[in-house]
Write a structure and sequence with these properties.
- There is one protein chain.
- By secondary structure, the chain is mostly helical.
- The chain has a single domain, classed as Growth Hormone, Chain: A.
- About 85% of the residues lie in helices and about 0% in strands.
- The chain is built from 16 helices and 2 strands.
- It has a two-stranded antiparallel ribbon with strand order 1-2.
- A hairpin with a 2-residue loop joins β1 and β2.
- α3 packs antiparallel against α4.
- It is globular and about 55 Å long.
- The protein starts with a strand and ends with a helix.
Length: about 450
Amino acid sequence: MTRQSNGWKFTTDGAAYRLLRRAFDLRPDEVRELAWSWLYIFSVFSSYYIIRPIRDEMGVASGVETLPWLFTGTLFGMLLVNPPFAALVARLPRAGFISVAYRFFLANLLLFCLLLKLSTPAQNLWVGRIFFIWTSVFNLFVVSVFWALMVDVFDAGQGKRLFGVISAGATLGSILGSSLTATLARHVGSTSLLLASACLLEMAVLSVRRLSRLSEALRLRPAARAGEAPIGGNVLSGLTHAFRSPYLLNISIYMLLYTITSTFLYFEQAAIVNRSFADRAARTTFFAQVDLLVNVLTLGAQLFLTDRLLRGLGVAVTLTLLPALSVLGFATLGLIPTVAIIVMFQVLRRSSNFAVARPTREVLFTVIPREDKYKAKSFIDTVIYRSGDQVGAWSFALLSGLGLSLAGIALVAVPISAAWLLNGYWLGRRQEAMGAAQEPLSRMPV
């Protein structure tokens, strides 16, 4: 059996296909969609991880005490970009509104190149603060849009099999991006790295267009056939649906609890790095090396573990693994509040999130209406996420101001993580029930 498109040919009785099928349970009609999805997420994460260490270094240079204000600015940034994006979703086909959104961020990158080149040292500090906020918006927004397209193109059953493999493309992109910055930060300026990030973002736009056309041409699923039709709806439906639906509301709570606990750990890391490194290039290199370690640990799990966990344990149990790790990790920090434990916990937690929790969380969105996959999902992934940052940032500042040590703050996070675990189990059970109800419809003739 052979598939061919624009001169590209894949033979499903060849050794390469048999290897892919054994490793990932890959079907013949999924190969090209998977390949373009890989290139898409690889480009997005390469682009982001080139600039992530630059953002983190600028946040530290601005002063650890300013981080809560930078997180507040990020939340306002999320609130500003969501309504225009929802308006684009209502009026343009998916390839159109995703391309417009990505090229808007690409133009911003070019503007920052100019600002960093022309600003004085005093002005550079403020440019750095704006860049920190912008990068935090950019990161969540472009990744959320990617996963929205994935849950539109693939159904729940495919998500369990393929989202871990697709996430491996994100990890490889992260490894490339952080490696480039770790290697080049001391030798080239930030503007050169920003230009490389912009080029990779344009590659993501190309992948979006190819993937959307391919999904439409294959006509495998009703959602794929609808891919080139504007979704419609109003600008605020993402917000209203997220709070009216008990299912979407609990996804929002899951996201909120995850980000609160993540922010606690992030602030500890920032304080430690600020004390340990005086040189800006050294701090940038350190952040890139930590990212590289996390991504290397994540890759093997995404390729060979995620789909097996999802299919073997189910969505409900798999969704509780990261909260359970957090309960144990924060309890350990409460008993042994050392730098080594913080770094170890951060690496394990981020790896588990990327390899297991994130792909599983995306499966939750495969069973909701198409409008919610782009609008409500974008609202949850950006505004709700950054609202959790706000709660975490200001709670950390308050607890520190009250005199609580790292051990005390860690113990506060233990019951939060336990509540998160219960919420995740409920969500997983609900998704499994909704997916089972939709399965007979997915088997109807197309």
